[in-house]
Design a protein that fits this description.
Radius of gyration: 17 Å
Order of helices and strands: EEEHEHHEHEEEEEEEHEEHH
Strand order of the largest sheet: 1-2-3-4-5-6
Shape: globular
Structural class: alpha/beta
Distance between the termini: 37 Å
Mean pLDDT: 88
Helix content: 10-25%
Strand content: 25-35%
Oligomer: single chain
Length: about 240
Protein backbone atom coordinates (compact mmCIF):
# COMPACT_ATOMS: atom_id res chain seq x y z
CA UNK A 1 0.00 0.00 0.00
CA UNK A 2 1.21 3.51 -0.81
CA UNK A 3 2.21 5.77 2.07
CA UNK A 4 0.58 9.15 2.46
CA UNK A 5 0.60 12.17 4.76
CA UNK A 6 -2.43 13.33 6.73
CA UNK A 7 -2.87 16.42 8.90
CA UNK A 8 -4.84 16.81 12.13
CA UNK A 9 -5.32 20.38 13.39
CA UNK A 10 -5.67 20.51 17.16
CA UNK A 11 -6.59 23.53 19.23
CA UNK A 12 -5.60 24.85 22.62
CA UNK A 13 -5.70 28.06 24.64
CA UNK A 14 -2.79 30.21 25.77
CA UNK A 15 -3.29 32.98 28.34
CA UNK A 16 -1.40 36.15 27.41
CA UNK A 17 -1.68 39.24 29.60
CA UNK A 18 -4.93 37.89 31.02
CA UNK A 19 -6.46 37.30 27.60
CA UNK A 20 -7.04 33.83 26.22
CA UNK A 21 -5.93 33.18 22.64
CA UNK A 22 -6.75 30.11 20.60
CA UNK A 23 -3.69 28.25 19.27
CA UNK A 24 -3.78 25.83 16.37
CA UNK A 25 -1.20 23.09 15.91
CA UNK A 26 -0.55 20.66 13.09
CA UNK A 27 -0.08 17.00 13.95
CA UNK A 28 1.14 14.93 11.01
CA UNK A 29 0.36 11.27 10.35
CA UNK A 30 2.59 9.33 7.94
CA UNK A 31 1.74 5.82 6.81
CA UNK A 32 -0.71 3.65 4.91
CA UNK A 33 -3.90 1.75 5.74
CA UNK A 34 -2.07 -0.57 8.15
CA UNK A 35 0.55 1.41 10.09
CA UNK A 36 1.50 5.01 10.87
CA UNK A 37 4.02 7.28 12.54
CA UNK A 38 2.69 10.35 14.33
CA UNK A 39 4.70 13.59 14.25
CA UNK A 40 4.24 16.30 16.91
CA UNK A 41 1.08 15.17 18.72
CA UNK A 42 -0.31 18.21 20.51
CA UNK A 43 -3.04 18.47 23.12
CA UNK A 44 -5.99 16.54 21.67
CA UNK A 45 -5.11 12.85 21.73
CA UNK A 46 -8.71 11.79 21.08
CA UNK A 47 -8.93 13.77 17.85
CA UNK A 48 -5.57 12.46 16.66
CA UNK A 49 -6.45 8.84 17.39
CA UNK A 50 -9.83 9.25 15.72
CA UNK A 51 -7.91 10.05 12.52
CA UNK A 52 -5.54 7.13 13.06
CA UNK A 53 -8.42 4.72 13.52
CA UNK A 54 -7.49 1.05 13.73
CA UNK A 55 -4.07 1.51 12.14
CA UNK A 56 -1.07 0.54 14.25
CA UNK A 57 0.98 3.40 15.65
CA UNK A 58 4.64 2.41 15.28
CA UNK A 59 6.23 5.55 16.69
CA UNK A 60 5.52 9.03 17.99
CA UNK A 61 8.19 11.52 16.93
CA UNK A 62 8.49 14.94 18.57
CA UNK A 63 10.50 17.49 16.61
CA UNK A 64 10.95 19.53 19.81
CA UNK A 65 10.29 19.16 23.52
CA UNK A 66 7.82 22.04 23.75
CA UNK A 67 4.24 21.39 24.92
CA UNK A 68 2.73 21.94 21.48
CA UNK A 69 4.94 19.12 20.17
CA UNK A 70 4.65 16.63 23.05
CA UNK A 71 1.35 17.47 24.77
CA UNK A 72 -0.43 14.28 23.65
CA UNK A 73 2.63 12.08 23.08
CA UNK A 74 2.05 9.61 25.89
CA UNK A 75 -1.67 9.18 25.20
CA UNK A 76 -1.30 8.53 21.48
CA UNK A 77 1.59 6.14 22.04
CA UNK A 78 -0.07 4.11 24.79
CA UNK A 79 -2.68 2.17 22.81
CA UNK A 80 -0.16 0.30 20.64
CA UNK A 81 2.81 0.68 23.00
CA UNK A 82 4.50 2.78 20.35
CA UNK A 83 7.95 4.21 20.92
CA UNK A 84 8.29 7.94 21.63
CA UNK A 85 11.33 9.69 20.13
CA UNK A 86 12.91 13.03 21.05
CA UNK A 87 16.36 14.59 20.70
CA UNK A 88 18.19 14.29 24.04
CA UNK A 89 18.94 18.03 24.19
CA UNK A 90 15.21 18.70 24.51
CA UNK A 91 14.66 16.34 27.43
CA UNK A 92 14.56 19.20 29.97
CA UNK A 93 11.70 20.76 28.00
CA UNK A 94 9.91 17.40 27.83
CA UNK A 95 10.16 17.11 31.61
CA UNK A 96 8.18 20.31 32.07
CA UNK A 97 5.18 18.60 30.42
CA UNK A 98 5.74 14.96 31.41
CA UNK A 99 7.20 14.82 34.91
CA UNK A 100 7.03 11.07 35.48
CA UNK A 101 8.18 9.59 32.19
CA UNK A 102 10.84 9.92 29.51
CA UNK A 103 10.88 9.36 25.74
CA UNK A 104 11.88 5.85 24.66
CA UNK A 105 14.42 6.86 22.02
CA UNK A 106 17.07 9.59 21.85
CA UNK A 107 17.08 10.76 18.25
CA UNK A 108 20.36 11.56 16.55
CA UNK A 109 21.30 13.29 13.32
CA UNK A 110 20.93 11.01 10.29
CA UNK A 111 18.76 8.54 12.20
CA UNK A 112 16.07 6.71 10.23
CA UNK A 113 12.47 5.74 10.96
CA UNK A 114 10.56 3.44 8.62
CA UNK A 115 6.81 3.18 8.11
CA UNK A 116 4.81 1.57 5.32
CA UNK A 117 7.03 1.85 2.24
CA UNK A 118 8.90 5.05 3.15
CA UNK A 119 11.55 6.28 5.56
CA UNK A 120 11.93 9.46 7.59
CA UNK A 121 15.47 10.82 7.89
CA UNK A 122 16.34 12.79 11.02
CA UNK A 123 17.98 16.18 10.44
CA UNK A 124 19.18 18.20 13.43
CA UNK A 125 17.77 21.73 13.04
CA UNK A 126 18.37 23.50 16.37
CA UNK A 127 17.52 27.12 16.99
CA UNK A 128 14.07 27.45 18.52
CA UNK A 129 15.10 24.66 20.90
CA UNK A 130 18.55 23.08 21.36
CA UNK A 131 17.29 19.67 20.27
CA UNK A 132 15.02 20.69 17.44
CA UNK A 133 14.92 18.26 14.52
CA UNK A 134 13.26 18.00 11.12
CA UNK A 135 12.20 14.79 9.39
CA UNK A 136 12.78 14.44 5.65
CA UNK A 137 10.79 11.94 3.60
CA UNK A 138 12.31 11.82 0.14
CA UNK A 139 9.71 9.38 -1.19
CA UNK A 140 6.85 11.75 -0.32
CA UNK A 141 8.83 14.90 -1.13
CA UNK A 142 8.13 16.40 2.29
CA UNK A 143 9.99 17.66 5.33
CA UNK A 144 8.42 18.01 8.77
CA UNK A 145 10.10 21.11 10.19
CA UNK A 146 8.44 21.64 13.56
CA UNK A 147 9.11 25.27 14.48
CA UNK A 148 12.42 25.54 12.62
CA UNK A 149 10.80 26.75 9.39
CA UNK A 150 7.18 27.72 8.82
CA UNK A 151 5.10 29.24 6.03
CA UNK A 152 6.02 32.76 7.15
CA UNK A 153 9.72 31.97 7.63
CA UNK A 154 11.81 30.89 10.63
CA UNK A 155 9.59 30.02 13.57
CA UNK A 156 9.64 32.00 16.79
CA UNK A 157 9.06 31.24 20.44
CA UNK A 158 7.09 33.88 22.29
CA UNK A 159 7.62 36.33 19.45
CA UNK A 160 11.40 35.98 19.69
CA UNK A 161 14.20 33.96 18.12
CA UNK A 162 15.97 32.13 20.97
CA UNK A 163 19.06 31.35 18.87
CA UNK A 164 18.60 32.92 15.45
CA UNK A 165 22.15 32.29 14.19
CA UNK A 166 21.81 28.56 14.92
CA UNK A 167 18.35 28.51 13.37
CA UNK A 168 19.51 30.18 10.14
CA UNK A 169 22.45 27.80 9.96
CA UNK A 170 20.01 24.89 10.26
CA UNK A 171 17.77 26.32 7.57
CA UNK A 172 20.51 27.24 5.12
CA UNK A 173 22.75 24.26 5.71
CA UNK A 174 20.13 21.54 5.94
CA UNK A 175 16.61 22.50 4.87
CA UNK A 176 17.50 24.65 1.88
CA UNK A 177 19.67 21.89 0.45
CA UNK A 178 16.50 19.88 -0.21
CA UNK A 179 14.76 19.91 -3.62
CA UNK A 180 12.77 23.08 -4.25
CA UNK A 181 9.49 21.18 -4.62
CA UNK A 182 9.82 19.64 -1.14
CA UNK A 183 6.70 20.28 0.95
CA UNK A 184 7.38 22.17 4.20
CA UNK A 185 5.06 20.77 6.89
CA UNK A 186 5.45 22.71 10.13
CA UNK A 187 3.79 22.48 13.53
CA UNK A 188 1.94 25.75 12.87
CA UNK A 189 0.42 27.31 9.78
CA UNK A 190 -0.11 26.32 6.18
CA UNK A 191 1.92 24.15 3.83
CA UNK A 192 4.51 25.77 1.56
CA UNK A 193 7.52 24.49 -0.37
CA UNK A 194 11.25 24.92 -0.03
CA UNK A 195 11.12 26.82 -3.31
CA UNK A 196 8.62 29.30 -1.85
CA UNK A 197 10.89 30.16 1.07
CA UNK A 198 14.46 29.80 -0.20
CA UNK A 199 14.51 33.13 -2.12
CA UNK A 200 14.02 34.97 1.20
CA UNK A 201 17.06 33.47 2.90
CA UNK A 202 19.51 36.24 2.02
CA UNK A 203 17.12 38.82 3.46
CA UNK A 204 16.83 36.83 6.68
CA UNK A 205 20.59 36.62 7.00
CA UNK A 206 20.94 40.36 6.35
CA UNK A 207 18.67 41.19 9.28
CA UNK A 208 15.13 41.50 7.94
CA UNK A 209 13.79 39.20 10.66
CA UNK A 210 14.86 41.46 13.51
CA UNK A 211 14.50 44.82 11.78
CA UNK A 212 11.70 46.98 13.23
CA UNK A 213 9.19 48.08 10.62
CA UNK A 214 8.42 51.79 10.38
CA UNK A 215 4.80 51.15 11.24
CA UNK A 216 5.38 47.88 13.03
CA UNK A 217 3.38 48.52 16.19
CA UNK A 218 0.48 46.57 14.75
CA UNK A 219 2.51 43.39 15.27
CA UNK A 220 1.96 43.70 19.02
CA UNK A 221 -1.80 43.62 18.79
CA UNK A 222 -2.55 40.04 17.84
CA UNK A 223 -1.30 36.55 18.58
CA UNK A 224 1.41 35.05 16.41
CA UNK A 225 1.04 31.55 14.93
CA UNK A 226 2.57 30.15 18.13
CA UNK A 227 -0.15 31.80 20.22
CA UNK A 228 2.02 34.58 21.64
CA UNK A 229 2.72 38.22 20.89
CA UNK A 230 5.94 40.05 20.03
CA UNK A 231 5.80 42.04 23.25
CA UNK A 232 3.95 39.44 25.29
CA UNK A 233 4.76 36.49 27.46
CA UNK A 234 6.92 33.69 26.14
CA UNK A 235 5.32 30.32 25.61
CA UNK A 236 7.21 28.61 28.43
CA UNK A 237 7.57 24.82 28.59
CA UNK A 238 4.96 24.66 31.34
CA UNK A 239 2.25 26.37 29.32
CA UNK A 240 -0.43 24.31 27.62
Amino acid sequence: MTARIERVVTEGVVDIDGTEHKVENNTWIVGDDEEVIIVDPSRDAEKIMEKVGEREVLAVICTAGLPDHVGAAIEVASRDEAIVALHPKDKPLWRETWTETWPDIDMEDDGIFEVADVQLDVMETPGVTPGGVSLYCEALSAVFTGKALQADGPGKLGGEYPALADQLTSIGGRLFTLPLDTRVLAVHGDEVSIGDLEPHFDDWVSGSLTRVDAGGEDEDEGPLPDGTKVSGIKLTPGDK
